Every structure is written in C-alpha cells, then in structure tokens.
Amino acid sequence: MPVRFAARMMSLPRIELRRTCAALGAAVLLAAGCSNSTSPGHGSVQSVVVTPDSITLTIGGSNSLQAVAQDGSAKAISGETFFWSTSDSLIATVTQSGAVTAHQAGAAQIGASTQGKTGYATVIVGAALVHSVTVSPSVDTIFASAPANSVTLSALTFDDRGQVLAGRPVTWSTTSNLVTVANGQVTATDVAAGSATVSATSTDPGSPSGSATVVVVGHVATVTVTPMNAVVSPSGIIFPQTVQLAADLVDTFGTDVSGQRTVTWSSNNAGAATVSATTGLVTATPGSGGATVTITATTSDGATGSVAVTVFP
Question: What would you report as the CA-atom Rg of the chain, rounded to the nearest whole angstrom?
Fold first, then answer.
C-alpha cells in the first residue's frame, strides 16, 4: 500500500475507517465476480447428441459415430469424455472411440454417456449384398448323349470384401440349345457338338453373375485301326520287328475327332507281340513263333476298333 494512502487511512476516524475498508472489500469481491475463470468442458451437461442418429450397415461393415455434450442452451460443451455402449452386442459392437461394427442382421441402440446424460443412435444391420458370383468348374466337357452327358456346376456368392455369402440364391440359365440347366445340373440335348455358356445370376440388386463353359462332344461312333494287314517278325530280317498303328475316330455327328480324343492300346497275346498303350507301336516279342495277334484301340467312352497283326516266325 502506498505510504500516502496508508497515512491517509490512519488519519481517518475509526468509524469512517471501517466504512472505507468495507467498501474496498466489496469492490474486490465485485471484481472477482465479474472475471470469467470457468474453462470449457466443465459446464453442466444437460443433453448428449449423437450423429448421425441412424446408420445402416451390412454384416461385417463399420462406421463411426460422433457425440457432443450440450448445456441447457443447446451450446456445445467441449472436453467431455464419453462412455459408449450397445444394446445388443450380437448385432453391433462399438468401441470407446465411437466406431461401430455390424455382426448380424437386426437393430441395436448405440449410446454415448457423460455426466449422467446419454444420447443414442440407431444401427440397422442388413445382410450383405452379393457383389460377385463364381461358377465352378469354370470349364467342363460332357457327351451329347448318355452316358456321361451331364455335369453339376456350383456357384459361390461373395460380398464386396471378397467374403463368401453362404446360402444365397442364384438363377441358372443358358442361351445355348446344346444343353439345358436346372439347379446347376447341365445336361446335353444331343442336337450337336459345341460349347455352351451357363450362367448363375444373383437375385440381389445389380444382378451380379458368373459363368462357366460346358463343351459338348459326341460319343465316338467308329474306331478304324490302320494298317489293316500288318506283319512283324521277332528277327526283323524278312519283316520289320515293329509296326506303327493309328486309330481314326468319328463321332455320332459324323465328325472326325481323331486328334481330339485319346485311345488306349492293348494286345491279346503279349507273348507274340506287345503294343505301347499310349502310342500304338506294335513290337514282335523276341523268341516268339508264328501267331496272329489282335491289337485293340479303346476310346475313353468305350468305343473300340481292332486289327490282326501277323507275327512271322
């Protein structure tokens, strides 16, 4: 306190001194009351608002919510810490930062609480949509007529994250007259050989689909083995020791399919002559005597053709 002011105060009568001190104290209190020392975030919370107040997710999807505390005038109060909760953790869970993850179809309430006040948002969870379809096998071959004239295809549906969506319905179709399809089973119509595209289409919005190629072939109708009159000799002096046979194949539609099918070769008398099962090369067995050996070519669908090979002693 300045010396002059202190001296003046001491010179005042006792009653006036008391009044002056009281007025001074009141002024100090008034000044303190006018100063704003309340920091943000320490006001009285009257409500909590969660935004957005409603979200829609698919199973496995996620989104984030935000919470704001408000005072009685609906003004935001900063610095509040919220406790997040869910009404049904089987449907949706929430982290303490407000991140929501969907787990199964249904609806749940997500709450954000502080100072005894809670705000809510509704989370609606639906099944994930089909984003893509894969058909397997992607390529297969069937015969135009029985036997082996059908194949069963399967379809897998996936969401946009590449996760399999089990049990989703698909519609099977084809624009080809070579086959028919029902519930994934493709059956040849026996009208011709060729390739057919078979599709599986989801019923979800956008109709995502996948497809496979089914190759239709005719059964082998005839197998002609050449040469017709071959002679081999174990010594290889008069006649060659080996002879190369070939099989000409024609299917039920009259098409030469020799280069498209495989045959298995066999000999009915390996003691006189053997034949390579894959190439058709016949070899006279060393030390064998004279004989006639039947060499047979058999296709994968059971058609056969034969020739007699003479083994000269």
Answer: 46
User: 286: closest CA among 303, 270, 300?
Assistant: 270
Coil, helix or strand for 173?
Answer: strand
pTM of the model: 0.68
* Backbone torsions φ then ψ of 243, nearest 5 degrees: -145, 140
**Residue 72 has what DSSP assignment?**
T
Per-residue pLDDT of 74-94, as tens digits, reads 999 999 999 999 999 999 999
Tens digit of each residue's pLDDT (9 = 90 or more) over 31-42: 333 333 223 445
**Rounded Cα–Cα distance for residues 276 and 279 (Å):** 5
Distance CA(290)–CA(309), nearest Å, equals 11
For residues 133 and 155, give the distance between their C-alpha atoms in angstroms, rounded to a whole number: 7
Instruction: Report the half-sphere exposure of 279 (CA within 13 A, side-chain side).
Output: 9
